[in-house]
């Protein structure tokens, strides 16, 4: 399934992200958390891969903070936007299910439920095996605390930037196997042309249980789990908004 907001509509992704989150520029808080984690768990993190980093919201901030960052994503459109905004950013086009990059990094990040876009067990095994063998120090994963989600959900969101007004209608169903099937309708008003457009979109997400993630990483990795983008918020299944596992290599 090709989700338009990551592909041909990727230039609208930052506004869509802010609209559905109800927060403007939240990637700054998320990136500050990522940097706090780097400092807490490792003496020196220099090279990072941003797995499914999209248009580069975190990559851009990490690049500006002085890190050597590579953005990996399956959307060529998203990568071209990231590269246009940050000509010095390294980008790699590819899919998690088949990724085979012959390069090591100190750390990996995979933000905003992006790990949930793998739908085969073989694909997940490839994704986590690659991380285990190519990441030298630590890995930050991040998914919604799906344990708290209702089986059905409906919400309408409104957002705006200097160029567009956006309305997003979101409906999802969550199966017993933690597969979330979402349908979106976007109503987009272009402030320059005065035109309105209505676009249907959809995505599936396969959330992954913490125990399963531990299995993928095996005994050579330690784990601490945060429940939000804050070093003081440890994960609590009943209350936390996020599941943010940090895997770090045992010394
Ligand atoms: C929800 S967006 C998150 C983007 C970014 N991490 C953020 O927090 O803003 C998911 C991203 O993952 C990418 N993606 C989805 N499935 C993928 C896959 N199987 N392999 C590589 N990238 C994938 C999409 O193209 C999209 O850019």
Chain-wise SSE layout:
Layout lengths: L12 H9 L5 H15 L5 E5 L5 H8 L3 E6 L2 H10 L4 E4 L11 E6 L10 H14 E7 L1 E2 L7 E9 L3 E11 L4 E12 L5 E11 L3 H8 L3 E6 L15 E8 L2
Helix pairs in contact: 2-3
The structure holds S-adenosylmethionine.
Report what the structure shows.
This protein is 25% helix and 35% strand. With 251 residues, it is α/β, with parallel strands linked by helices. It has 2 domains: 4-146 and 208-249, Vaccinia Virus protein VP39 (Rossmann fold); 148-205, N-terminal domain of TfIIb, CATH 2.20.25. Strands 1, 2, 3, 4, 5, 6, 11 and 12 form an 8-stranded mixed β-sheet that branches. Strands 7-8-9-10 form a 4-stranded antiparallel β-sheet. Strand 2 (68-73), helix 4 (76-85) and strand 3 form a beta-alpha-beta unit. Helix 2 (27-41) packs across helix 3. The N and C termini lie far apart (40 Å). 35% of the residues are buried. The mean pLDDT is 97. It binds S-adenosylmethionine. The site of S-adenosylmethionine has 18 residues, from loops.
